[in-house]
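Researcher: Next sequence.
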Amino acid sequence: MFELFKIGFLSINFTDIIDILLVTFIIYKLYTVIRGTIAAQIFIGLIFVLLLSFFAQAAYLKALSFLLRLITDIWVIAFIILFQPEIRRLLVMLGRSPVMRIFNKNVQYDISNILTEAAFELAQNQHGALIVVVRSAGVRGIAETGEIINAVASKNLLRAIFFPRSPLHDGAVVIKGNIIEAARCTLPLYQDTVKDGLTLGMRHRAGLGISETADVISIIVSEETGSISVADNGILKRGLSKEFLRTYLAKNIFAEREKGIKGIFDLFSKQNK
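Model: Next structure:
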């Protein structure tokens, strides 16, 4: 392999640079997962031992290399035992990544069912709710206005959040994929208080407002009537049945907003119907 440069007795080539960058990235990601825990201190200690072992071998310090080799020979087993919870967290994070979701075709159907069941159980109890489902673009600024949760979405968790006595029931829940990113979020309001001849409450105005400014679907459960509505691209659909909501979410929840001139004309025509 073509040599790029030398550092003392070490010869560095392009493959070595790639190798170092990959190892650095992996170590950094591991550290971000365990940062703030006791395991982080142990992790730093292990990295120090590995670096010391590397330099001892490079400098031909035979006695020190022998002692450190006794530790490094069993460090993989020790690493798995000590960092079992952190490794599990890392694997879960990888499973939630957008790349892995390409291979998980059931996510959109699962989240559609979860949202539908949660919305209708909330409606039966006349517990108001506002759920914002992110599609192609994130709404990090909106999520940061509320309480960060980052938990896997479930029917019971959504019901608990929107229970009237819950401190998180006011505001909106933001969901991306199958993860509840945040609760008690503040949304931009739709300018008018009337839509299609019907008066809008605060939840409906907030759901419409965010659907106009971001690529999201808003699910609104009325506290007064128990009816369920969906806001999408500035269009409000009211009084939805359970099957209609389930089908609509399964079809549209992962669909990206149309781009370009055609998308602009289609969006304009929809808003003027």
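Model: Residues 56 and 65 are 6 Å apart (CA to CA). Residues 256-273 have pLDDT under 50 and may be disordered.
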